[in-house]
Amino acid sequence: MADPKTESLIERMLAGDRLALARLITQVENRTDAVPAIMRAVYPRAHGAYVAGVTGPPGAGKSTVVDRLTALLRAEDQTVGVVAVDPSSPFTGGAVLGDRIRMQAHALDAGVFIRSMATRGSLGGLARATGDVIKLLAAAGYAWVLIETVGVGQTELDIMKLADTTVVVLVPESGDAIQTMKAGLMEAADVFLVNKADRPGAPALMAELKFAAHLHYTSAASPKDIDWEIPVLSAEAQNNVGVKELLAEIRRHRATLEAAGALAARRRARRGEELKSLLLDEFRAALETRLASGELAQACQEVMDGHLDPYSAAREALALLGLRARPGAQP
Amino acid sequence: MADPKTESLIERMLAGDRLALARLITQVENRTDAVPAIMRAVYPRAHGAYVAGVTGPPGAGKSTVVDRLTALLRAEDQTVGVVAVDPSSPFTGGAVLGDRIRMQAHALDAGVFIRSMATRGSLGGLARATGDVIKLLAAAGYAWVLIETVGVGQTELDIMKLADTTVVVLVPESGDAIQTMKAGLMEAADVFLVNKADRPGAPALMAELKFAAHLHYTSAASPKDIDWEIPVLSAEAQNNVGVKELLAEIRRHRATLEAAGALAARRRARRGEELKSLLLDEFRAALETRLASGELAQACQEVMDGHLDPYSAAREALALLGLRARPGAQP
After folding, report:
1. What's the confidence (pLDDT) of residue A177?
2. How far is B109 from chain A (nearest CA, A)?
3. What's the half-sphere exposure (Cβ side, CA atoms, 13 Å) at A251?
4. CA B169 to CA B132: how far, in whole Å?
5. Residue A268, number of CB atoms within 10 A of its CB
6. How many whole angstroms separate alpha carbon B159 and alpha carbon B163?
7. Partner residue opposite B89 with nearest CB, options A36, A93, A154
């Protein structure tokens, strides 16, 4: 399967070698040719970790929350992998890497593995790479994986879909910005955490979120596979206030998912989505080749010259690729 | 081509009937089956408008800027189509529809056509629908199309790619939020506008943006097809201060593009991208069908059950679809 060097890295990683794990993660992050072989090899052991996501606007204190959760889990002797993802998209913060410095408390702890990931230009590949890193951490034996991401766009939402439980961290200052995004927040969040709760505006924000969460719970948009009203917690993560309660809520969410059979069902659906997205990426690559120099190049030129509309060209191209789902269907 | 009713709508739209235009836009927005026929019919006349985009964080005053630009263009007897796009994504603002009320000054002006668009759940389709609406407005004879969108994520950037000139509107209050997003901003912006420039912090923000724009200009990331350092303007759009200068800069950008042959080249590349994205969407639809019940259903089940890793399944599936670009290439 994999080349001998990668094979040996995988073996050492499965035996607990952190350096081997770090190197495999680098391969996954750089999307090297060895990735499919790596993932095939670790796949059978890649399903054990519980994945919690922590997202929210820049400055909400996500890194501190992740740091304090890690400390609590370590106090119980649970192993923890941390993946800090920075999509570096415009209009968002991108200081995740710097924040990692705070996690240095865990740097010498063999039960904690911390990794920062950035986009390097390809937003589309980031969710896939993050998903593969989660599998590597699970295969390496980490019981918990915490994903942290600055949550502002589609990419961050795609990343949060990798989590079994998603915590959305907000601060009183984010009040204005969240006024108009409640519907999206409700879809992403399993738990709300109002951090820096000693600041003015915190009680109002909590009341508002509780009201919105309750409305969502009674609406058609609420998930049907579990009975869950999004709880709204307060914290001062910096002073270690409220983090124990947060971990308890994450566990209550997990227990609720498990009792309803929803954890397995959701992970099942997630694997289907993963296959679909992989196939789409492959099609995209094949398409690039064929549009540039293959059998679709002429239609592409005509569209670029403005002589042919893209809808007609697409209909032609799909026929050439043998991909018309139903004859007569409109592209 | 199109059914007789749509055919008649298209004819009336091309003859200047605003109601027919509105109905065709609704078809495009709802992605009905008639869209390919509509776009085929209008395509030959759909390339005349100059498209300017206005984006920026919530509360920056984008609607007011668009309103004042429209008034200036109308004073010159230029026709203007306005498309206000609200991706309604989480963590962003979504008050564009409400802001439309301000545009009521132009409601009775036959030389202005205003339309708001929202996602209705499918972010991916929004950029395509916006692109098609721009073509409809161009075919209906509008000389200028102004696109306004709350700029925060990938979708908004995709929408801004439809513009020939993109104006990024910022306010002193957005200072913190933009600290870390400069690279992305520089890629999106052709002109910076610091609005509400009477507020404290405006001169500092302008100085900062000018410095960043100059760094970008001298960097490898700066576009190579034109010689353009992103100008930084100030405005109080509410008081009609600085909008004339903004329009002048938009026109200077247009003239620079035209003189370098870059306007035609960029529109050409944009049409190629449009075809590619259309083909990807079609493949996605074909894939859904085949994964659910077609020849890929079994592999999909095995992946969902966790018995087969997605990379191996993708390799198998692509072979079945006859889509392996090169034998032996890694999925």
Report:
1. 52
2. 31
3. 10
4. 25
5. 14
6. 8
7. A154
Which long-range contacts link A199-205 to residues 24+ away (Cβ below 8 Å)? A199/A171, A199/A172, A199/A173, A200/A172, A201/A172, A201/A173, A201/A175, A202/A172, A202/A234, A204/A172, A204/A175, A205/A170, A205/A172, A205/A174, A205/A175
Q: Which of B57, B154, B279 sits opposite A318 (nearest CB)?
A: B279
Interface of B with A in 226-265 (CB under 8 A): none
Task: Please tell us whether the domain made up of B44-259 is placed in CATH 3.40.50.300.
Answer: yes
Question: What is the predicted ipTM?
Answer: 0.81
Alpha carbon A208 to chain centroid, angstroms: 26
Q: Kindly give the confidence (pLDDT) of every residue in chain A, 331 residues in length, as a single tens digit, with 9 standing for 90 and above.
A: 578 999 999 999 999 999 999 999 999 988 888 999 999 999 989 989 999 999 887 788 999 999 999 999 999 999 999 999 876 544 333 344 444 555 667 777 889 999 888 755 455 578 888 999 999 999 999 999 999 987 656 667 778 889 999 999 999 877 555 554 555 678 889 999 999 999 998 999 999 899 889 988 998 888 999 999 999 999 999 999 999 999 999 999 999 999 999 999 999 999 998 898 888 888 888 888 888 887 788 889 999 998 899 999 988 888 777 665 444 444 4
User: Which residues of chain A have a CB within 8 Å of the CB of B185?
Assistant: 90-91
Element (H, E) at A310: helix A310-320
As a whole number of angstroms, the distance between CA B59 and CA A177 comes to 9
Chain B residues whose CB is inside 8 A of the A310 CB are 39, 271, 274-275, 278
In angstroms, the Cα distances linking A193 to A9, A247, A250 are 39, 11, 11
From edge to edge, which strands make up the β-sheet containing A165-170?
A112-118, A80-86, A144-150, A50-56, A165-170, A191-194, A232-234
pLDDT band at B325 (very low <50, low <70, confident <90, very high): very low
| Residue bearing tokens 């059979």 | A261
Q: Where are the alpha helices (DSSP H) in A140-234?
A: 154-160, 175-178, 182-188, 202-217
- In angstroms, the separation between the Cα of residue B217 and the nearest Cα of chain A is 18
| Cβ separation B311–A39 shorter than 8 A | yes
- Using the 8-state DSSP alphabet, how is residue B196 labeled? S
CATH (residue range A44-260): 3.40.50.300
Give backbone dihedrals phi and psi of B228, rounded to 5 degrees, phi first: -150, 115
Question: Residue A221: what pLDDT?
Answer: 83
Residue ranges of domains in chain A: 44-260, 261-331
Contact A155/B at CB under 8 A: yes
